[in-house]
Structures are given as structure tokens and as C-alpha cells.
Design goal:
Chain lengths: 441, 422, 516
């Protein structure tokens, strides 16, 4: 039973239960040393097969989630639901109606997220601008930027054995930092933007660091602390927006003064398209994180602490410091995500300024198997789903909330790879060592 | 066999400033703030409290001079702190009392300052009402985690319960059926949690978080897609009837809170007792705790570890789902998107704050409910204390609790660890 | 019938157990290979074998914790299926596990009744459970307080709870898995007495151990297991050397070739050290110690007498309450671990998989776990993979670490090779002091020899060496001086040729002068 399971390792740094080793055979220790040559072609094939398998599982997880999403649409649509009442009288018509509903919805989703052939056509005949052709992609990238940042904010601590559910709070603090600088500072645009980014990262980072320090000093479980800090940050935001220097005196609702246009993140392609500096920032950060984890000294410490804090400490690595710093770094990235929301798209602070990017960042990190480039891929996918979801709501009249459900389902299927393999009868992965794929990437 | 006796002389002395004495010191400081600072700034006006649910001038009431009140209750707080320091005993009692006295002092200050009027029965009634979903959620957490499965999905269970109550309650046309459906809804989330966590060994916190997102997405989708389109046939379960216990509900201050409520009020009180008895007095409870602390030990005496965990997770789902009906049938008469608004996480906090004990979880839920009721009260009397900071209180308190600054709460030893034989 | 029934009670039930052709595989690994074994009623049957020979696996199969791939289990001549511990108990088989299966926060009575609770309509009857504990513990001379909390009890008493727990289930065959590993010699003798008493009361006992002395003292019959196979059976009268040879497959020479030491100046000086354990008890209670350059000081003692805490305090892994530690005259008390390591201390921790290695890391990464941020392996910002790999290749060769490549995850190596990785890492810095805790625990014989030779070689180049081991043989073989530790104190420092009896008494806390 245990051989085929895919547990995510317990992130707690406590020593495992003593009885875990009981009864385990140590026969390997007695075998004469195995001198094997270079890995054979078969070994390499197995490796490839597994790598492929990770991809396959992710792909099938997405397919499965979309299928379930289609079923939800059918249940959720009054006419189609009614049509199913006549299934035995008009089976073909029922199936046709269902198919029409689902295929139109997903087509609209695609049009809203990637490219709309109609627009291309109209542009060809000079009936619309080229900007309209790129609008879907622009929307996808705009949505993806903060998700990648908050996704990384979950992925990095995960590699250190910490589960950061606090991306939301850290993003809020980042939005406060970046927003405040953007609103209040009257300096040339590039300086303001740079300072806003720094302030967002700093405030988010401190919010994360607090978690790490509590964990290192008192052992307080980071999952609980981050959940609590999310709400503390939210209430702080509510209070903060109402302060005289920030509050917009001309509006009664909870909203700050607008960030001056000059301090808004510059648009990347064209002022008519929303895609902005944020996505560049996200990709740059992802590249930096990838380097850090692979080649960076701190990345080495972080991974060592994540896999085995006891051994890391015994070899002289400062475990508490590493944990604190990791959370600080994660908080800074989530803070950048929050800044991207304020200065990239929102333009002022509101109670919902960061949306759900912190929570969605968790899903993005898990889908990306807590690897930096995986997170980028997952962030782009989620960005596309959200851009497409908005289009679907507008054109097919199907609630955008479906996207939230689809996102969650994708991650459930990815987190339970055995489930997907069972559904699609995929062959079992031959490599047991690679089993903890989700956790260790 | 005498040589095996233990020699406790090796135990280290703890030092004078134990956890209890440190807490006492904090109490003394709080008391000083009340007795000195608050007494100095509070106007020399009476603060008036009403016993009933209204502030009608005819209602029974008492008043106390602001300066006298803050001084008295400040001194009482100091007394609690001093007792803690001197006796080094009864941590929970004196900390609780001391905090209560301090809150009263602060309340007197605010009321004297703003001239606001406080109906005490209404305050306690609101407290109970705000605590209700927390009680269900927190006890669901206790039942689940005592068997070693982390339940971060309380929020999702409450939300699904609220949704099912409204949907099926309306469709079938029976509120009672709605309540049953609510429990089943919570159990469905539990089923996925149990299946993935126990059978597929997926990390329990991960799956809990994802399930919350799933519940949010599914209920939100069907709300917008189905319920909002046709409220009458899908989303009008109506309010649950209020049952008043004659006589008992007339008790001043606590009567209306405990004996004038919907079925959920009585169910919650019953649940606290039942869960406590079940966990600590029954065979099921002993086995549950054994499985949560040391599953291998339970396994070696023939207890089906995984089976018991399934059962407990499902029970937790039923409890939380049932409590979810509060949102769509007690405080409102219909479901809306994300109607739980994160209260599931406060329930989680209450469970931790209550140290994984049903009574503790209940008290923590009441405390959190009270701070929420107080926050609305202060807003109502236009107190200058920002209500947002008061709203943070439960969360800050929980961080203090898990950080061990005010007594560490210890989770069951095997909480969150999947059990694999061998 | 009636008469028979009464006899049954008087003599207690007896049980004859037979295992036929039990085979258990874990992947490619054959943990039990066609094992057959018979335990006669009322005998103490010793199952003798090295660590990892497959004894525990076999017993877990018998107790239903693992399912065999083939083979059958017969009780009183009838083949039975044991799907779980419940079936085993029902068949009259009980087990005392090496790592106790007791819930630490429960009382004795709660632990004893767990799984077979006296209850009415589901409600527990605590009084009945306490009575049962008292009755059974009195009957077999194993006194217990039913209301004591397990985690407050010493190890020896906890073991007693385990035995009583099994006995209350009316088992007729008791499996004791390495029961003496955690006991002092005196406690061990008491346990052996208890075992004889149980046998005389008609119980059968399977006694799993790797300690020859105990086997000879108590067993009626001996079955030796090696690498998952039964390699022979013997009578307790057989000479120890013969049993040892059966156990390890060749004659064991636990002697390490070495010259007499020529100690120089003191390198490590510990004075008045007091260290608390995790339960805030004084685990180290005023230790004075000196290790000189060019000598091996061995610390002997039963596990859990403060050795772990002593070493961890020296290494800066655990705070010391009072006292000081100096390294070549420099006070290193309270230094961070990294600083201690880099001041010239090598450290092999006692549990390699918990404290020694990051199993998911490659061999190469584990070899630089201490020096990854120093040239040439890296700097404060970046690693230098090429230098790391090159160094690893050298170490693999030098320390005979058998592996496919230095990129292999270290967790996929055998225990002996994992241990060599740690030794290689810790010896790769210039050392003044080398500390090895349980340096060869769970390691194959070939690696033991290799590691022992390296330790002596380290001594011979002039390092001070501190070896902590609960295997007295190992301490005697390696040490130039032996310090015996008991309940947080060093009772005596004696030469390695001290008679074993004296060492045994010291380990039990009895000094020759004080007498007993």
C-alpha cells in the first residue's frame, strides 16, 4: 500500500515519530556494495517516462476539471436542465443542447483568454484596431502577473517545509505599502514606481518575516499564524483606507484617493491594453527564484532545512534564521503581487484591492508543483481562465464563479495523481523515488 | 523490581516567573491601566446599563459613576493578577476573570464617555448568536483533529451547509429537511477530505485549503446561476422559528441568550455536552484520542485506525454542515455568495484557542463572539475605539495562543500525519 | 469436560506456534525468505540476528502488522489467517514492541484497556479497567499504578505496562522485540526473571535480540536469522563464538588493529556541565571530561543516561545550563553549531537519518552540507556545482562509498554507505576533535570495520576523538580510556582492559568502592 502512495511530506520540523522506522527491513545495508555502471538507456527512458507522467497527470487533471465544469454548466442552466427532463423522449436533442451550451461557453472562454478569430477577421477588414486582437492575451497576462508572484510566495516556503497560507495578508500589506507611496509621493514617475515596489516588498516582507520569526522562536505553526494574519491585515486595510491622508474625501464608500496616472505601472504594449510592468516583474522574479533554488547559497540552505531541519542544523545551518528569512522573502513576493494590483490595475486602495490573489496563489503554487517555472505556467493558466471566465460570463451568461470551481478541481486532481491515473488508466510510474512529486518537484 | 522507580529530583526547577505568574503580571498591568489611566480620563458621569433587551427608559437598569466604576474594576483586575502571582495556581480562572473585569472597566469608560446606552441582555444575546457558527465549526474541528486529521476545511463545510440548507430547504419546502441537507452538505466536503487525506495521503492542510476554494466556487456558481435566477423556487428557506423556554428566558442578562433561540442554539449547547462526554467517557472517545495521539499503538491493539478516522471526519462534516444552516436560516433567510465570510477560520482559531477540547472550544467561541458583539456595540454608541482593531482581537489572541505567549496549546500528537502501516 | 476446563485454568492455556515458509518482500528486497519456525508451548524461543536481519519483519507478519507474500501460520496445528493485530490477539498472540505502543498522554489503565475496553453501552468503566491492571500486575509480580500518566514513567516501567497490556488480553504467546535495548544491565536481569516466571506460568515467549549473553541466560531454544533466512538453530549451551558466527556469517573480530596511544595536550575540556533534556530534566548533571590529542575516549553507558545531551551541548545544538566547554583552551560554551564545527570539530550524530543526512539531497550535496558557502564550493551568494561534484568524486573514492553516481539521492544508499558519507564529510575539515555518536549503529560488518579504522587513523594523526556508543564491545574495541556514564554523570574513567563485569556494574550505577 505504502509504495504506491504519494504523500506530501509533513512540513513540520519536528522529529518524526520514533516508531516510524519500526519493523522496516534494513536488508539493503547488508547487501554487498552495488557497483553499477552509468545509467542505462532504460534508466533514462524511465526518467523520461516519469517526467512525461507529471506532465500527463497535469494535463489530464485540467481535462477532467473542464469536463466537470461542463457538467456544472449543464446543471446550472435552467433550459438545459429542463431539457434533460425529456431525455428519454428526445435524447439527441438533449445531448445537442448540452453540447451547444458547453462548447459555446468554452469557446467564449478561449476567445476571451487567447485570441478571438472574429476580431482577427474584423481587424483584417479594418473594422477594428490591432489592439483588440491582442486584448485577450493582454488580459491573461495582466491577471497572471500577481498570481505568479503570490504563487511563488507559496512555492518558496513549501520548499523549506513551510506552508504559507498568508499570501493574502502579505499581498494586502504590500498593496498598502505600494499604494501609499504611489498615492502620497510626489516625485518623478520612475522614482515613485521604484519606491512603491520597494515599499510593497518591504511591508509584505515584514508581514511574512513576522510569521517566520514566530515559527523560529516559539514553534508557532505557520499555517495558523498566517491564516490569522490574513484577517488582521484585512481589518488593518479597512482602518487604513479611512485615515485622512489616504481616504478619498469625495466618495462615501471605502476607497482611497486615486494613484496619480504618472505613478501607475507603465503599459507594456499600448496604452489601450492593460498588460503592464507587472508581468515583467513577475517573470523577472520567477527567474531569480529559479536561480536561487538551483544555484543560490540561500536556496541550498532553504532546501536542506525543508527536507531535514535536524540534519541541516547539525551541519551548522541556522535553521530558525533560514525559516524566518524564507518567510520574509515569500512575504516580499506576495507584497509585490499586492503592489502590482494597486499600481497595475486598480489605481486606488479598496477593501477588495488584492482580490483573491493570495488564496489563488496557493492553488497556483500547487498546480505548478512548487517549482518556479511551474508556477509561471500555472499562473498563466489561471490568468487565462480568469480572463476567459469574464468573457464567458459576458457572452454565454455563465457565472464567472465557475472558474473558481474549475481551478480548485484542477488542483485536487493534481494533488491526488493516483486518482487521475485511475480515471484515465495511466500506467503506474515506475520510479518510486519520484513519488513525492507534488511536494518536492 | 524496586530499582526502576523514578527519581524526580532530576526535574529542573522552573524558576520563579512561571507562565502563570507572568500572566499575573500582565493582569496587574492591565488593572493599573484601568484603575489609574482610565479613571483619570473618564468623565465624572454615570454609565447606565440596562438589564433587558431594550434601552427603554422604563426598563430595569443600574448605573455606576464612571470614575468609581473604572477604579473598582481596575482594582479587581489587579487583584486577579496578584492572586496569580502569589498562588501560582488556577491560571484559567483568574486570567478569565481578570480579563472580564478589565473589559467591564473599559466598557464603563466608553459608556460614560459617549453617554451611550447598553442593553446587557441584548449584548449577551448577540454574543451567543455570533458564537453559534463558531461553536459548530470549532467542535467539528475538535472531533476531526482529535482523530488525527487536520480540518482546515471548516469554512467549506459551513458554506456548503448554508448552501444546502437554503437550496434543499426551499426545493422540498421544509426547513427541517433543509437542516438535514445542511448536515449532508458538510459531510460531502468531509467525504472528499477524508478520501483524499486518508486513502490518497494527500497533505491534509493542502486539501483543506483547496476544498474551501472548491466550496466557494461551487456554491458561488450555483448561487449566481440558479438561485439568483429564481429565488422563489431555490433560495427562500425562511427564518427558523424561535423557541422560547418559558420562565428560563426571563432570567436577566443570560436568559434571552440561552433560552430564546432557534433549534441551533439548543443544538449547540447540547453538542458541547455531548462531544465532551463522548470524547472522554466513551469507548469511541478513548479510541479516537488514541488514534490521534499514537495511531500505531491503536493499530496494534486491533483498532481500525483509518476506519475510525473516516468516521470522525464524516461526523465533523455533519456537525459543521448543520451549523452552516445558521447563515441561511437564522441570521438571514436566504443564501448569498460567500455568506460565511471566513468565519470558518475563526472557528478553526477557536478550536486551537480552546486547546482541542469541546468545552475550551465553546468558551473560545463565546469569547470571539463577544468581541464581535462588543465591536458592534462600540460602533453603535459611536466609541472612538476603531472597531476594526476590536475585530482583529480573536486573531491576535489566537496568534498569542499558538506562540505560547499565553499558555501553549498542544495539538494531538499525530494531527495531520497520515497513517501508513508497518 | 469440567475437569479439563479447570486444569486449563490452573496451568493456563498453552499454545504451539508454527511458521511455515514465510516470505515477505519489499520491492526488490527480500526481508524474510522462506522462514520456518516452531515455538513449543511454554518455552522461551530466542530469535537471534543482527540489526536488519529481518527479525522484526517476521514478528510484524506474525502479529498481523504486515501481510506475508507467501507462507502460513499455524496455531496448535491449525492454519490461521492473521489480517491484523486483532486477529493475532484473538489467536492468543501478544507483542511488546521495541518502540512502545503506548499513548504517552493516557494513563496506565487507559493504555491497558485500549482496544478491549470494559464498557456499558459504549461508556467506559474506568474502575473495572483499574482493577484489571491491579489484578494482572499482582498476579505476575509486575506492580503498576493504574492512574499514572505514561509519559511521566521511566522506560523500564513503560515496558512493564506493555507486558501487562498483553497479559490482560489473555495471550499465551508473547513476542518481545529487542526488549533489553533500552534497559540497564540490572533492569535487564529483572526482565529476564520476569520472562522465566511467565514461562513457568505456561506462556510461550519469542525473544528477539542480538545480544548473545541474554540469549544464553534465558532461552530454551535459539533460532538464528541472517539476511532474512533461518541459518540454523542452536541450544543455549552452544558457545558464544559459534552463535556469533552464525549470526554474522563469519567469525567476528571486534578488535580494531591499533597501537597504544600517545596522548598529547587536552583538546576538549568539559567542566561542571549541566544540560536539560526536552522534558526539562537534568540529563547531564555536572560532567567533567577531558579528551587529549591522539587518544580515543569512549563513553559507555546504557542509552538515555545523558550521552546524547552531553554531545549535543558540546556541539552547540542544545544549551547548557552551567559549566563550560573548551576546545584547545578556547571557551566554546554557547557557540553556535556552525562556529563549533568550523573551529575544528567533526561530528557524527547518533541517528544518521534524523540528524546526519538530507536524504533527498544528492551524495555530493550531503558531502558539502557543512561547507557549501565556503570556497571552493560556493560563497555567500552562489554555489559552485563543479567544485562540489569534483570534491564528491574524490570523497567517494577515498571512503569507498558505493554508489551509482555522486548525483544519486543519498537516501537510496545502504545504511553503511550513508554512514560513510557522514564520516567522509566530517573528516574533510581540518580537525582538532572528532566526536562520533553510535558510529556504527545499523551498519553492515564491512562498513563497521572501515569506519573503525578511520576513527583510529584520525586519532593517529593527532586528533582528539570522543566515541559514544551503547554497544560496550565497540567502546572497548576503540577506546584508549573509557568513561562510564550513568544518570547524567561520569561514574568513572577506566582503562579498556577493565573486566566487563566491572563495566557492567558501572553502567548500572554501581561503583566498585561503594559496593552494593
Amino acid at each position: 500500500m505504502s509504495d504506491e502512495q504519494h504523500p506530501i511530506p509533513e512540513p513540520s520540523p519536528d522529529k518524526g515519530p520514533a516508531h516510524a522506522e519500526a519493523g522496516r527491513p534494513y536488508l539493503t545495508t547488508e547487501k554487498p556494495g552495488k557497483h553499477r555502471g552509468d545509467p542505462t538507456l532504460w534508466d533514462n527512458f524511465k526518467k523520461e517516462f516519469y517526467a512525461d507522467n507529471t506532465f500527463t497527470v497535469t494535463l489530464f487533471a485540467i481535462v477532467l476539471a473542464l469536463i466537470f465544469g461542463g457538467i456544472l454548466m449543464i446543471i446550472g442552466d435552467a433550459d438545459t436542465r429542463a431539457q434533460w427532463g425529456y431525455f428519454f423522449y428526445q435524447p439527441l436533442k438533449t445531448l445537442e443542447a448540452s453540447w451547444d451550451l458547453v462548447s459555446k461557453a468554452y469557446t467564449d472562454m478561449f476567445k476571451g483568454a487567447v485570441v478571438n478569430p472574429d476580431t482577427v477577421n474584423r481587424w483584417y477588414w479594418d473594422m477594428t484596431t490591432w489592439q483588440q486582437v491582442f486584448r485577450p492575451i493582454s488580459e491573461t497576462l495582466t491577471n497572471a502577473a500577481p498570481l505568479i508572484l503570490t504563487g511563488l510566495a507559496v512555492a518558496i516556503p513549501f520548499r523549506a517545509g513551510l506552508f504559507n497560507i498568508g499570501g493574502q495578508g502579505q499581498a494586502i500589506m504590500g498593496a498598502i505599502g505600494g499604494g501609499t507611496v504611489g498615492i502620497l509621493l510626489k516625485l518623478p514617475a520612475p522614482i515613485v514606481i521604484l519606491l512603491a515596489i520597494l515599499a510593497g516588498a518591504l511591508l509584505g516582507g515584514l508581514w511574512g518575516l513576522l510569521v517566520g520569526v514566530l515559527k523560529a522562536k516559539t514553534g508557532a505553526h505557520e499555517v495558523i499564524v498566517t491564516i490569522m494574519l490574513n484577517y488582521i491585515a484585512l481589518y488593518f486595510l479597512f482602518w487604513y483606507i479611512r485615515q485622512a491622508a489616504i481616504d478619498d474625501p469625495n466618495r462615501s464608500e471605502l476607497i482611497s484617493k486615486p494613484v496619480p496616472d504618472s505613478s501607475i505601472f507603465p503599459k507594456l504594449i499600448d496604452p489601450a491594453l492593460r498588460v503592464n510592468l507587472g508581468i515583467l516583474l513577475a517573470l523577472l522574479v520567477a527567474a531569480g527564484v529559479a536561480w536561487l533554488l538551483k544555484r543560490g547559497t540561500f536556496g541550498f540552505e532553504l532546501r536542506a532545512v525543508g527536507y531535514n531541519p535536524n540534519a541541516a542544523g547539525t551541519a551548522g545551518i541556522k535553521v530558525g534564521w533560514t525559516l524566518a528569512l524564507t518567510m520574509g522573502l515569500a512575504g516580499a513576493l506576495a507584497g509585490l503581487g499586492g503592489t502590482t494590483m494597486v499600481l497595475g490595475t486598480a489605481g486606488n486602495l479598496t477593501g477588495e484591492v488584492v482580490g483573491q490573489i493570495g488564496f489563488n496563489g496557493i492553488l497556483v503554487a500547487l498546480l505548478g508543483r512548487v517549482k518556479p517555472w511551474g508556477v509561471v505556467g500555472a499562473g498563466l493558466l489561471f490568468g487565462a481562465l480568469q480572463a476567459g471566465g469574464a468573457a464567458m460570463q459576458t457572452f454565454s451568461g455563465i457565472s464567472n464563479e465557475l472558474v473558481t470551481a474549475i481551478q480548485a478541481m484542477i488542483v485536487i486532481f493534481v494533488a491526488a495523481p493516483l486518482l487521475v491515473k485511475a480515471v484515465f488508466r495511466l500506467r503506474k510510474s515506475p520510479s518510486a523515488a519520484a513519488s513525492a512529486a507534488l511536494a518536492k518537484g | 523490581m524496586t530499582s526502576m522507580t523514578v527519581d524526580n529530583s532530576l526535574a529542573l526547577p522552573e524558576g520563579y516567573w512561571t507562565r502563570t505568574r507572568k500572566a499575573g503580571l500582565i493582569m496587574v498591568l492591565l488593572g493599573l491601566i484601568a484603575a489609574v489611566y482610565l479613571t483619570a480620563i473618564v468623565p465624572n458621569e454615570p454609565a447606565r446599563f440596562f438589564l433587558g433587551e431594550t434601552t427603554a427608559a422604563s426598563g430595569a437598569s443600574f448605573s455606576i459613576n464612571g470614575k468609581v466604576g473604572t477604579l473598582i474594576f481596575g482594582l479587581l483586575t489587579i487583584a486577579c493578577g496578584a492572586l496569580l502571582i502569589l498562588t501560582n495556581k488556577r491560571f484559567g480562572l483568574y486570567v478569565g476573570l481578570g480579563l472580564a473585569f478589565f473589559v467591564v472597566a473599559a466598557l464603563i469608560w466608553q459608556i460614560a464617555e459617549t453617554g451611550g446606552q447598553v442593553p446587557l441582555s441584548s449584548l449577551s444575546k448577540i454574543t451567543m448568536e455570533k458564537s453559534l457558527p463558531l461553536i459548530f465549526g470549532a467542535i467539528a474541528g475538535v472531533l476531526c483533529e482529535r482523530s488525527g486529521v487536520v480540518n482546515v476545511a471548516i469554512e467549506g463545510q459551513l458554506l456548503t451547509g448554508a448552501f444546502f440548507a437554503a437550496l434543499f430547504g426551499t426545493m422540498v419546502g421544509s426547513q427541517w429537511f433543509g437542516l438535514v441537507a445542511a448536515a449532508i452538505g458538510g459531510a460531502l466536503i468531509s467525504l472528499i477530505l477524508a478520501w483524499l487525506a486518508i486513502r490518497f495521503l494527500v497533505d491534509q492542510v493542502v486539501i483543506g485549503v483547496v476544498l474551501n476554494a472548491l466550496a466557494l466556487g461551487l456554491t458561488g456558481f450555483f448561487y449566481e446561476q440558479v438561485m439568483r435566477e429564481d429565488t422563489k423556487s431555490f433560495n427562500s428557506p425562511g427564518l427558523l422559528p424561535v423557541w422560547t423556554v418559558p420562565g428560563l428566558s426571563e432570567i436577566p442578562i443570560i436568559g434571552p441568550a440561552l433560552f430564546k433561540g432557534t433549534i441551533l442554539t439548543y443544538a449547540a449547547l447540547l453538542l458541547v455536552v455531548a462531544a465532551t462526554v463522548a470524547l472522554f467517557r466513551t469507548r469511541w472517545g478513548l479510541r479516537t484520542r488514541a488514534v490521534g495521539e499514537h495511531p500505531a499503538a491503536a493499530d496494534t491493539v486491533g483498532i481500525k485506525v483509518l476506519g475510525l478516522r473516516y468516521v470522525n471526519v464524516m461526523i465533523a462534516g455533519l456537525v459543521a454542515g448543520f451549523g452552516g444552516a445558521y447563515f441561511s436560516m437564522v441570521t438571514a433567510s436566504s443564501f448569498t455568495k460567500n455568506i460565511t465570510g471566513g468565519l470558518g477560520f475563526i472557528a478553526l482559531a477557536a478550536m486551537i484557542f480552546g486547546r482541542w477540547h469541546p468545552v475550551g472550544a465553546f468558551l473560545a467561541a463565546i469569547f470571539f463572539g463577544f468581541s464581535s458583539a462588543l465591536s458592534s456595540l462600540l460602533q453603535a454608541i459611536q466609541s472612538p475605539i476603531p472597531s476594526d482593531f476590536l475585530a482583529m482581537l480573536p486573531y491576535v489572541a489566537t496568534i498569542f495562543a499558538v506562540a505560547g505567549l499565553v499558555g501553549r496549546s498542544r495539538a494531538p500528537a499525530a494531527d495531520g500525519k497520515p497513517y501508513v502501516k508497518g | 469436560m469440567l475437569f479439563q476446563h479447570e486444569v486449563h485454568i490452573a496451568l493456563e492455556a498453552t499454545l504451539r506456534l508454527e511458521l511455515r515458509g514465510i516470505t515477505k518482500r519489499f520491492g526488490d528486497l527480500v526481508a524474510n525468505d522462506d522462514i520456518s519456525l516452531t515455538v513449543e508451548p511454554g518455552e522461551i524461543h530466542a530469535l537471534l540476528g543482527e540489526n536488519g536481519a529481518g527479525k522484526s519483519t517476521l514478528m510484524n507478519v506474525l502479529y498481523g502488522l504486515l501481510q506475508p507474500d507467501s507462507g502460513e501460520i499455524l496455531v496448535d496445528g491449525k492454519a490461521i489467517k492473521i489480517k491484523g493485530p486483532g486477529d493475532a490477539i484473538a489467536a492468543g498472540i501478544g507483542m511488546v514492541h521495541q518502540h512502545f505502543m503506548l499513548v504517552p498522554v493516557f494513563t496506565v489503565a487507559e493504555n491497558v484497556m485500549l482496544g478491549a475496553e470494559p464498557a456499558k453501552a459504549g461508556f467506559l468503566n474506568h474502575a473495572a479497567a483499574s482493577d484489571l491492571v491491579r489484578t494482572v500486575s499482582l498476579k505476575y509480580g509486575l506492580p503498576l499504578d493504574p492512574d499514572a500518566i505514561i509519559e511521566d514513567l521511566p522506560i523500564g516501567i513503560q515496558q512493564r505496562v506493555e507486558i501487562v497490556k498483553a497479559l490482560t488480553r489473555n495471550v499465551d504467546l508473547l513476542i518481545l522485540d529487542e526488549p533489553t535495548a533500552v534497559l540497564t544491565p540490572q533492569e535487564t536481569d529483572e526482565l529476564l526473571g520476569v520472562m522465566r516466571g511467565l514461562r513457568d506460568a505456561g506462556k510461550s515467549i519469542v525473544f528477539i535480540t542480538h545480544k548473545l549473553r541474554e540469549v544464553k541466560a534465558v532461552a530454551d531454544r535459539i533460532t538464528v536469522i541472517r539476511r532474512g533466512k533461518v541459518v540454523g538453530s542452536a541450544e543455549p549451551t552452544a558457545p558464544e563464538s559459534e552463535l556469533a558466527e552464525l549470526m554474522v556469517g563469519r567469525s567476528v573480530v571486534l578488535e580494531v588493529p591499533k597501537q597504544t596511544s600517545e596522548p598529547g595536550a587536552a583538546v576538549l575540556k568539559v567542566s561542571g556541565l549541566v544540560v536539560a533534556d526536552d522534558r526539562r530534566h537534568r540529563a547531564v548533571d555536572g560532567v567533567d571530561l577531558e579528551v587529549r590529542a591522539g587518544e580515543v575516549l569512549g563513553i559507555a553507558g546504557v542509552q538515555g543516561n545523558g550521552q546524547t545531551e552531553l554531545v549535543e551541548a558540546i556541539m552547540g545544538l542544545r544549551p547548557s545550563l552551567t559549566g563550560s566547554v573548551t576546545l584547545s583552551g578556547q571557551d566554546i560554551t554557547g557557540w553556535a553549531t556552525r562556529r563549533v564545527l568550523r573551529a575544528g570539530v567533526g561530528y557524527v550524530p547518533e541517528d544518521r537519518s534524523v540528524d546526519g543526512l538530507v536524504k533527498e539531497f544528492s551524495l555530493a550535496e550531503n558531502l558539502v552540507l557543512d561547507l557549501y558557502d565556503t570556497e571552493p564550493f560556493g560563497n555567500r551568494f552562489a554555489l559552485n556545482p563543479r567544485a562540489i561534484n569534483e570534491a564528491a568524486q574524490g570523497r567517494v573514492e577515498e571512503f569507498d562509498i558505493r554508489s551509482q553516481s555522486e548525483q544519486q539521492p543519498v537516501g537510496s544508499l545502504s545504511g553503511g554507505n550513508q554512514q560513510k558519507v557522514i564520516v567522509a564529510r566530517e573528516m574533510s575539515r581540518p580537525l582538532k576533535l572528532f566526536i562520533a555518536s553510535q558510529p556504527t549503529r545499523g551498519v553492515d560488518v564491512g562498513s563497521i570495520e572501515f569506519i573503525h579504522r578511520r576513527i583510529v587513523a584520525e586519532r593517529d594523526v593527532g586528533s582528539a576523538v570522543l566515541v559514544v556508543s551503547s554497544e560496550l564491545d565497540e567502546v572497548v574495541a576503540l577506546a584508549d580510556r573509557i568513561a562510564v556514564m550513568y544518570r547524567g554523570r561520569i561514574l568513572a574513567v577506566v582503562p579498556p582492559n577493565t573486566p566487563r563485569e566491572t563495566l557492567g556494574l558501572l553502567m548500572a550505577g554501581i561503583t566498585p568502592e561503594a559496593d552494593s
